[in-house]
TrEMBL record:
A Pfam family per the record: LSM
Top-rank taxon: Eukaryota
Annotated localization: Nucleus
Oligomer and partners: Component of the precatalytic spliceosome (spliceosome B complex). Component of the U4/U6-U5 tri-snRNP complex, a building block of the precatalytic spliceosome (spliceosome B complex). The U4/U6-U5 tri-snRNP complex is composed of the U4, U6 and U5 snRNAs and at least PRPF3, PRPF4, PRPF6, PRPF8, PRPF31, SNRNP200, TXNL4A, SNRNP40, SNRPB, SNRPD1, SNRPD2, SNRPD3, SNRPE, SNRPF, SNRPG, DDX23, CD2BP2, PPIH, SNU13, EFTUD2, SART1 and USP39, plus LSM2, LSM3, LSM4, LSM5, LSM6, LSM7 and LSM8.
Bilayer-spanning residue ranges: none
InterPro entries reported in the protein's UniProt record: Lsm7 (IPR017132), Lsm7/SmG-like (IPR044641), LSM_dom_sf (IPR010920), Sm (IPR047575), Sm_dom_euk/arc (IPR001163)
Gene Ontology terms: cellular component: catalytic step 2 spliceosome; Lsm1-7-Pat1 complex; spliceosomal tri-snRNP complex; U12-type spliceosomal complex; U2-type prespliceosome; U6 snRNP
Organism, scientific name: Callorhinchus milii
Membership in a protein family: Belongs to the snRNP Sm proteins family.
Record bears the keyword NADP: no
GO molecular function, one term: RNA binding
Name this protein carries in UniProt: U6 snRNA-associated Sm-like protein LSm7
GO biological process: mRNA splicing, via spliceosome; nuclear-transcribed mRNA catabolic process
The Sm domain, residue ranges: 28-108
């Protein structure tokens, strides 16, 4: 055990304690994205932006590296509606805190909203 004295305080620490603290701080991601490496995925972000690209890497905070990225441009009149227009972005690093949805590009198709009641006219 070692004693370190500083400004009006004394800190006791044990040898090896810092190593144990580092082990506790390791966080694992709740998602296993390794099966999507080198596959095309679609990502939705806070604020409504959407992009798709080939997943090249990720970390436990869900920061993503996408290659060959295409952004899907939104309608200027309706922010929630996507247009057919796209924009080539290339290699992109996506900040994990802004990612809302990650899904594979193939196998994704739009369906009608089952919660909207149809009006009989």
């Amino acid at each position: 055990m070692a004693v370190r004295e500083g400004l009006n305080c004394t800190v006791l620490y044990r040898p090896g304690q810092r190593d144990r603290d580092k082990e506790k701080k390791k966080k694992e991601s709740i998602l296993d994205l390794s099966k999507y490496i080198d596959k095309t995925i679609r990502v939705k972000f806070q604020g409504g932006r959407e992009a798709s690209g080939i997943l090249k890497g990720f970390d436990p905070l869900l920061n993503l590296v996408l290659d060959g990225t295409i952004e899907y441009v939104r309608d200027p009149d309706d922010q929630y509606k996507l247009t057919e227009d796209t924009r080539q972005l290339g290699l992109v690093v996506c900040r994990g805190t802004s990612v809302v949805l990650i899904c594979p590009q193939d196998g994704m198709e739009a369906i009608p909203n089952p919660f909207i009641q149809q009006q009989d006219g």
